[in-house]
Every structure is written in structure tokens, then in C-alpha cells.
Records
---
Amino acid sequence: MSVVAAKGFRATGVWAAIKGSGKPDLTLIVSDRPASAAGIFSANRFRGTDVELDVARLRATRGRASAIVATSGYANTMTGAAGRRDALAIGRAAARCLHVPEREVLVSSTGAIGFRLPVSRIVRSLGKAARSLAATKEAGVAAARGIMTTDTHPKLAEATFTDRGAVCTVGGIAKGVGMVAPHMATVLVYITTDAPVAPGPLHKSLVAACGDTLNAITVDGQMSTNDTVIVLANGAAMRRPLSGPGLAKFAAALHDVCAALARQLVADGEGATRLIRVTVTGALNAREAALAARAVADSALVKTMFYGRQANWGRIAQALGACGARFDPLRVTVRVGGYPAIRGGLLVKPRFELYSRLAEAEVPVAIDLGGGRARASVLTCDLTERYVRINAGYLS
Amino acid sequence: MSVVAAKGFRATGVWAAIKGSGKPDLTLIVSDRPASAAGIFSANRFRGTDVELDVARLRATRGRASAIVATSGYANTMTGAAGRRDALAIGRAAARCLHVPEREVLVSSTGAIGFRLPVSRIVRSLGKAARSLAATKEAGVAAARGIMTTDTHPKLAEATFTDRGAVCTVGGIAKGVGMVAPHMATVLVYITTDAPVAPGPLHKSLVAACGDTLNAITVDGQMSTNDTVIVLANGAAMRRPLSGPGLAKFAAALHDVCAALARQLVADGEGATRLIRVTVTGALNAREAALAARAVADSALVKTMFYGRQANWGRIAQALGACGARFDPLRVTVRVGGYPAIRGGLLVKPRFELYSRLAEAEVPVAIDLGGGRARASVLTCDLTERYVRINAGYLS
């Protein structure tokens, strides 16, 4: 059900002839009333035109939006003043079709950087898209498909909670799956909820929910220019705003949705065959814990090792030793798939049972640096020939 | 001629049954008199036992050494007290065979981390190795072969200069070619010279020579635990120590040898098909210039783009924008292969001629951040399926 699971939201995904393949490339998400809105966006210095526009609109409206238009095929990034006009034109056309104020429309795009969007084709398709808006399961999946690039399947998640007798729903869609890294990992996540949450607490809940989910994943250590997570809360489920305990339940549901989408994003990472959950404990501070977890999660040698199901634990040590975090090598303990891998600065000889564990869909790597009390966790995937082929253009 | 090009040095490479393949795995380099010695070593916290031993010996002798014993197949790293005894035993056996003081023997090893060396086989082979020491071209090549792991060919370089009528030679060997990255890039480089240089200036010249050569290359962004560059200067070419101008000529020759070896290391990077020279100018300071150059040079998306000969310049922008260096995106200029790629924050449409340029063996990427006056340069290679296959163990 994804973004249409919550009351008062409709969505669609159609083909606007941006992609040559005929696959959906235009997604619309609309609330039947103005919604509280919050977003987290790419920290890349070359961030997209659409990202800049959305940041400005959320500021101008103080966190209010009614619709999201997202296209896939080209990212409207490094397109200058012309690209800015394109984004405005698409937003304006969507506002007209949907009968909402222009500034309540958020615009996103994803795909190859530096090319102009085919604006007239997009504008022409918006009418068709508006007419196909629905709250059905099919419409939710179509919306998820409309933002896909190298994703092999649509990514959907939802969670519900009850507050003072009313059932509230949080649902979302996401796309990856290359250029996925730290600091607002991956392009385009949209979440809707019918819970009544004001823009302030909505933004706070979103930042909290992303910290160990969408901001703690990596496919290739490359921060996209268009990373966007937006949540819309239209309050259709109940009249009065959420109370303290209700807000906590909302935050938990939002976190669940972000975690589910984050997991799906990494699992569908370009060329990935398995997930690796890297957890670091015993670091001197949070910054160094994150540094160590990311160094292991982004290491090409660690990632190819897991692809090959090898027990070459020295590569984990190598990545830790080079990352800049302070620790005593003799106090480091590493467990892989639940089995001891490094202890007291020495490799532990791998047991036979370990190899079948390495073949599983998700392998946990638990690292204790033996120093302080700080911890961090990053979800990553293996590195395969397919990632190379996809990004060398040999598959497109 | 490599490490035997300079007068008074002999070398060899033999099979000590460390590698199952029967290929050379034991290298000896010997000076016929005690030589000034300097080294630069891995900064990895898990650095090798041999590295620790060499650092201690160079300190104890105040920069004096007569021989280097290097083995390939296993890195004596994360092997604890037993590994320390192994390194001492190998050094002691070499000292006995070569009739030099034990503390004048430097020991190195490279290969898989965390496994004990077959010490008795190595010790038994040292006599044979000592008897085969020679100053012939073949012996120089054998020495370079004895330290190879996934290298596809031996790496040799030399340079000469004349000071007060005497010809001095600097020659070296190196091995790579995975786990190659910043901060003393790659395992094992040995350089010999017959120039008379005291340990102090020798170390200073080595640090200067490595700054923009062996310390400015990357294959996979992974800092090895055993990176070692050692230079021995035995003064066999002339009596009096080098004068100021002579020292400058020596520094230039040493730099040439380091640059040639660095280039060979990256060109033979695991799976590499071409070199990419990333140069950053216009940065606010040297740290940010290096940060930007390394971010581009280590980007999986940039590296696969060059493998696929694609003009997807947005990936260069993405890597720059995420690296932490401060700049105004609208002032950034990038040229690839001599052709404009990014100008004024916009992608420049690639010309047809560019594509044949992308097929060449080395492609320059010149980035100007349009801010300050600092610059940096990093040599990298493309990322191919073969890198993945090598490191997933599917080729070994």
C-alpha cells in the first residue's frame, strides 16, 4: 500500500517518455488536504536544483505541502538557471492539475546528472497522471515504480499505531540503488501518514528516524546530489494533534518504515548478493565509532571478501587500522556471523560451520574496539562484478 | 637492473616453498658494505610485525643496514609473539649466511594477513639464496619477482646522475597491487644507491620523493598493514659525501625512481585497464586539495566510468561535492583528457573526439576548484570486474 496506506493520500506512477524503455518515470503523491511536511536532503555541494527548490519551499511554507512530483531518468542537477526554470514549470503544471497552491508542490528527480529534463513531455503527462491518482494497492506500487532507476524492484513499507482509539498509518516508498552513501543515504524516499503531527515535531521525528536507518547505509560510499527524504502528515486519521505518548508511537512507526526501506535499499544495492550489518562498539566517541563502521562497510576488500564468502579477516583489521579511530589493536575483538574472527590482535582460525553462515542473505560483523562506550552501526552490501558492469555502462 | 644497478649491491629472488605455485617468494638484497638506510612505513594501526622490527632496527642503528630479506605469500601481521619470533629467526639466519650483524638486516613480508610464515623452509632456503646473489640484470629481475603477489609483472626503475665527475645510480623494485592507498601507498619498495648519503639527508630525500609519488597513488583506497619503502645508500660510487648540489641531484634521481615505480604500481593495479591522473588546483589549502583529489581517485563511480569509457561527468562532481573540501560549485572547472567537462557548475557536452581519448592508457582529469592556490595530484586506475574476481578469490 506504501504511500497510499494512510488516509487521505492518493498516488500514481505513469510513463512520461523520459525513459526510453517505456517504464514508469513520473510519480505523483497527493494529500486531499494541506499536510505538515518535513524533509532531509543531500549535503553534497553539487546538490540538485529540485533539492534547492524543495528546501526553499519547506522554509517558505513553514513545513506545509500537498503534493510531490518526482521523475526518474535524469537528475535535474548541474543544469543551471535553465534547470531551475524546468523545476518551476513542472511544479506549476502539477499545481494547476491538482488545484493546489504552487508552493505546496515539492519536486524531485533522479537519474543521470547534468542533462535537462524533457519538460514539455512531463507537463503533458501530468494531466493523465492526475486523472489516474488512486488509493489502491496498485497505485501505491506504481508510485514506487515511477521513481526507480537501477532498482530491480519497487521498495515499499508501512507501519500502524493506535492513539486514543484512532488507527494511524505511516507508509513509504524509496528508490536506490547506486551512489548510495553516508549523510542522507540514497535518492528519494517519500513517506506519508494520516497522523496529525505539526511540522516541528515531524521534522524532529524524521531526523531521529533516519539517524540509524537511512543515514546509516552504504552501497558504494558515494553521496548522491539528489538525496531526498520527505514525510507528509495530513492528520486525516483523527482530529486532535498527537499527544506526547502518541507522538512517541508515531516516531516509532516512522522509524520502522525508515528502517524497512533502508534495508530494502541496501539489499537491492547495485549488483549486491548479500547484506552485511557492521556494528562497532567500544569506541572512544560516537564520531570514531561511525568512522570505524563506515571504513569497514565501504572497504572494497571487505565487500569483495563477503561476495567470495572468504574468511580473510585481515581485511577487516586493515580497514579498521587505517580509519583514524583510536584503539589498541591487541584489545580488538571481531565476530563474523556469530563466530570469533579476531581476538587479542590475532586472527581466529575459521570453523567449518562458518562458511555456510557466510552464504546467508545477511551476515553480521560485530566489532568491539575495546576502548570506550560509543557505538555505531552501518548496513552495507557486497561488491560484485555486476556493480562494475552496471556502472561501466555495459548493461544499459 | 633495478636494485643491483648501483655499485656494491647484489640481489636474488628464489623459491622458498612459501607459495604453492613454485614462483619466487624470497628476495635478498645485500650491500657489500654497511649502507645508510631510511624507510617509510605503513601508518595502519594493525601494522605488520616486520614493519615494527624494521622501525626499531633503523632507530637502534641510527639508519644503517646491510641487507633486506623479503618474502611473499603471507604477511607477518596479526601473528602476535610467535610472528615476532619468526621475524627475528629469519633475520638472524640471513645475518649468519651473509656475515653481517643481525641488527643490520631488515625483514619484510607481504601476502595474506594473519598466517604464520613457514620459517624453517625460509631459513633453509636462505643459504641457497645467499649463494645465488649477483649483480646481473637477471638477479635484479629475480629480486623484483620474489616480492610479487597479484602483480602481473616485476616493477623496476633506475636513474643516474653525476656529481664531481662520479656517476651515481639509484635503482629500485616494487610490488603492489591490491590494498594500495594513501599514506605510504603499497607494500614493499626497495631502492639502492651507490651515492654517499648520510642517514639524515637520506630520510629527508625519501620523504620528499614519496610525497607526490608513492604516497599519492591509490588502487582501492585500502591502506596496507605492511607498506614499506626502504632506501639503502652504500657510497660505493665515490669517497666524499654528496655536496649540496650533489644532494639535490640525488634527490631528483630518487624522486624519478619513486615516480616510475608508483606509476608501474598503479598501471598494474588489480584488474586495471588504464591510469587516471587526478590533479586538483585552486583549493583553499593543501589538506582540502588532497581530500578532493583522493575523493575523485577513490570513487567507485568515477573508476567504473573510466573503465566503461563514459562521459558521465556528474560522477566527478558528486565525488567533489561530498568530500568536505570547501568551494563554490559555480566556479569549478574540470577538464578530462584535455577536453572541457564541467564549467560554471554545468556539464559540457562531450565532443566526439573525446571518446578515443578515453580509450588511451592514461587519462588526465584536471580539476580547478576556483578558490585558493593549493594543489594536489593522485594517480589511480579504473575499477573492473577483474578487481572483484581477484579479491573475491575467484581467480586464486
---
Amino acid sequence: MPGLIFIGLGLAGDRSVTVEGLDCVRRAEKVYLESYTSPLPMGVKERLEEASGRGVVLVERGFVEDGGRIIEEAKRGVVALLVYGDPMVATTHMDLRVRAEAEGVKTRLIHNASILSALPGETGLHIYSFGRTVTMTRGGGVSHTTVYNTVFENLLRGLHTAILLEYDYSTGFSLDPSAAIEGLLEAEADLRYGVIDGETFIIVASRIGCGGQSVVGGRVERLRGVEFGPPPHTVIVPGRLHFTEVEALKMVLKIGGDEVSDNSERIVRLARRMVTRYVEKSRSALDRARGRCSGDERHELLIENAECYISDAERFLNQGRDELAVLSIGYAEGLLDSLRLLDQERFGDIWR
Amino acid sequence: MPGLIFIGLGLAGDRSVTVEGLDCVRRAEKVYLESYTSPLPMGVKERLEEASGRGVVLVERGFVEDGGRIIEEAKRGVVALLVYGDPMVATTHMDLRVRAEAEGVKTRLIHNASILSALPGETGLHIYSFGRTVTMTRGGGVSHTTVYNTVFENLLRGLHTAILLEYDYSTGFSLDPSAAIEGLLEAEADLRYGVIDGETFIIVASRIGCGGQSVVGGRVERLRGVEFGPPPHTVIVPGRLHFTEVEALKMVLKIGGDEVSDNSERIVRLARRMVTRYVEKSRSALDRARGRCSGDERHELLIENAECYISDAERFLNQGRDELAVLSIGYAEGLLDSLRLLDQERFGDIWR
């Protein structure tokens, strides 16, 4: 039956294609290999031709983006498009699939490993503890800020971030891990959320699954400027670490225990810091105000109310209901501050 | 060289093993196939034996958890452990790897597709828009709450959630997608964050990559109670949808346009809802209070302060500084409410 099959090559190319994928190549009338989403290992096309006994045509971005010829051919016979990793992670592939289906061409995917499914195994980090993935591109500015914010949001929830690095097939450019680290440090200097500094523990995974792979972990101050060799690379900023993750990092990756640190500990939710500080401040003000209200019932009622709301703030914080905690402590402060505003002589110094 | 190789079978078993994986099986002195992390298709062991010409030993959880025999054998020769999907996603596999390395056994992974890398391609959802993944287990309570909270946190950031469903190899039990949907609805009835109701658009992906796969999308009211056939299944709650994602859902999955909706729109940050409501309420109270302070300077000073903080709250909200917005509106409320507490006769009804 005619149609278009997207076949994932996995991480290594001809060695990592699946048995089913190779069978499909053998039976396809036309076989294309796209070369623009990730650097292909040398000689993959030739080795795939040898293994399948079929001619493989190397195609560039424009050919897949246009897609007209692929779709026309897939109306008459089986067309295989070989892609690096798992198919469809790249938007150009999904776009081609959508247009093919719209023209009545049946499509099918042969799945394979992607760098994102491979990282947990190679690093020992739990897959369930990864947050959103992000790509860093050249040029700094917005790209660095986006990556930085994603790491920050993931760390707030204790999650790990995998940062993929730009690859530009047309020039062969690929963003270096050291450049990515500098990008994060620049964003830190600008935004100052406390996401990254010399002490932050990071991991650089290079050439996973495709020969000569390396996974290196350590503090930023030690890894910045290091030469990690040819692409592809991924930089990981781990979040909260389970003890089994720490064990795997030490044992499997031989990462020194003094290098491994929990990056999420420093990132305490803003609300949490705010409420803790204001609760303390308000309790002192409350004590002082109480000493000065000398039996005035209305003042005592107000102070009692303020006290309740300070306790509420602490309780909400412990329940993780941060917004309500902030609202309560703000309200308590407002009540107490009204005393100062309305009777400067008696209550003017309650905040000191 | 002796050692332990973890070989991912991908999603289909013998058909989805990679060329390199199959070569490793052929060269291994001992080949184990674990059967407890996911339901294996019928006859996989036999077909793997036929394809590789090697005997394959089916092993259960206890054998891998203990691991003593595997590690001893891997000290003397090459041992292959075949696992479903991509190796190391399961903690028992990583634990075995850590212990093997601790005993000086070299380990290696042959990667393959996992359900998490396959989902974007099969659904058309962008991989970068997935948040944390979570597993739902039987028994409700804590498990349902955890899943519900993960969906909520992902939706707050506009992200999709993949919900994996419990599989218990010893009894053959696997959690049904309909049970998972009911679990989410129960958690909603309990927690009321507005995460899910009959209108919520969800996707159920069944048997991806392993024959007879189906991907169905639609509103909860239509999908609840539907029979989705044999496992494995994944339930996806999509977040904010890019127009290319909507297009793929309509075209590739043939999901009706009226069924597709953006689930993140309803989830406005709690802080945002809170501040908007309280700003309105405080402005009315402020107007009433002003009408009653009849030239009292202290009261006017207090009201002026309250007004500043109400404006601050709005400004902070527009800047995305939610915590400061909540703190400010809480403070303004406290100030205004002190009037009521201190002078019931004049200000008792400012909140109405």
C-alpha cells in the first residue's frame, strides 16, 4: 500500500536503526535521508545503502519543507524518510506529515531513541524529575533569557532541565556547551534570580549513543571553558536530587561527591522568603503595639485580628498555599500599620 | 570484554530492537529478558531467540532486584539484559547498573524508543511543550492528588502532561484510561482548581508502536467510560496549543475541531484571580470610607496609603510580579479594615 513512513534512526544512524525500520527501507520504493536536524555520523548513508541494498537519497531542509515531491511519490508507492532520533520531534517533519495526510497519503512512524529518552539512563537522573526541555541558540539576549527562565521555573519545582544546543546544518555550526554555560551566567548577571553561579552542579552529555560518548558532571567553575569535543551535546542543570540519583552520579559517572549539589535548595519560592521575613517583622510590631494599647478595646480587637492573620499566613505557607499566605501577612501588616498612621504618637515606632 | 549491556527493545519488542542491539544479543554469553516493567507482546521471547540464534531467559522483578547472579556472570562474560522501551527509565535497572559498576563491572546502554519520545510524533504535540510526566496508580487518594497537582502546575505554565498508567506484572493488572479520567474528576471535586471537567480536551494513546495502536482525542464527557482495549495506554492532558499542534490534531488524528480546546486558558493563576477580585472590592470600600472621614487628617492619610497600595497591586500584577501584587492588596485591605475595627459606627459597612 502506498504511503509515507517516517523512520527514526536513533542516536547512532545505521547501527541504531530498528529491525523493522530496516525492513521498511528494503521494501520502500524511494528512500530519503534528511541531514539537517542533527549532525549525521560520517558514512551513514553508504552503510545504510549497504545494509538495505537500496539507494538512499540525502536531502536538505528545503526539500522536506517543500515536500511536494515526497507527497506525490507517496501517492503512488511507499516512500521512506529517514530521520535522526525519534521522528516528529522536529516541526518540519510533523508539518510534512500533516500535509501528506491532508492529501490523503497514509503516514506511519517507526520510533527510535531520542536524546531526551536516553539522558535519564546515561546520567542516572529520574525521567519523572525532568521539567520542560529547552533549546539554547546563538546570539544571547532573548534565547538566553528564555533558557534561564525555564531552568528557574523547573528549579522552583525541584525539576531537572535538559538544555539542547543549536545545530545549524547549513554552516555546520553547533553551539558549544561552554558558550551555553556563559549564556546562563550572563542571564544570571542580568536577572539575578540565583539560578546559577560557580557552585552550581551541571552535567554535560556529549555524543550520547553515537560513539565516543562522554558524560561529565561538576561545578560550573570547573566546567566552564572545558573543551567537550564534537557535537551533539546537551547541558543538564539538575534540580532536587533523590539519593539514588546522587548514588548513580557518583558510581556510574564517577562524579566526585563534593561536586554534586542540590541546585533547587537555594531557589526558595519568593512567596516563602517574603512571608517568613514579614511574619517575623509583624510579630515584633504586634508585641510592641500590644504593650501600648493600655486597655483600649478597639485597639485590642485590631491587634487580635492581626495576630490571627499572622498565624494564618504561617499555616497557609506550611500547606503550600503561598498566595493565601502572602495575602494574609499583607493584611496583618496593613492592620498594624493603621495604628501607626492613625496614632503616630502612640504607635509611631512599632516597626522600629 | 566482559560486562553488562542493557538493551532497549523499544515499543514493539523483537521488531523494534535495533541492529546494534540484536548484534549484542548474538555475541552475549547470557541473555536475559525482563518482563515486569511493561506488558510484553505475545511470543517476543521466542521471536528474539529465532532472530538472534541465542537462548533468551525470561526473568522477573526479584531476579533483577537481587541482581547477584547477573553481576557475577557479567564479571566473566558479556551479559545482555533486554528491557522494554529505553533502558534505565525504570529505577530497578539503574539500581542494577550502579551496583554492577560498584563491583567493577563495565556497563553500557543500547538506547531505543520510549513512550515519552514517541508521544509527540503520534499526537502532533510539541515535545518542548510537555511538562513533568507522572504515573497514576490504583487506589486513588494520594496518587490522584499527585497526578492532579502535576497537571495543574503544568497547565499554569501552559504545558502538556503525559500521564502513564500503572502496570502490575505480577497480576497482569493495568490501570484503565477511563479509571484515570475518573480519578482526575474525583480530585477535581475535592480540590476545585478548575483543572478538569466534562469540557476538558484530552488524548488517549493506546499501544503506541506495538501493533493495533490508536490515538483518540476528545472532550472528557465523550471519552469517559470508553473502552480503549488492551494496554499500554497513556492519557495526555494538553495545555496551551500552538496552531500547528491544533492542525496536526485535526488532520493526523482526525479529531473534530470543536473537540479541541486550550485547557490552559481557564487556569488563570490563583494570584491573578485573587488580586483582580480584591482590587475591585477594595476600591469600593475605599470610596465609601472616603465619604465618611469628613476631613479627619489621620483617616485621610490612611486612605491615601490604601489607595497607593491598591494601585501598586495592579501594577505588580501587570508586571507579572504576582507575590508582590498579593502582598500589596492584602496590605491595603488591612489598612481599610482597621477603620472598621477601630470605628464600627462610622466605617462598619464599608465592605457592605
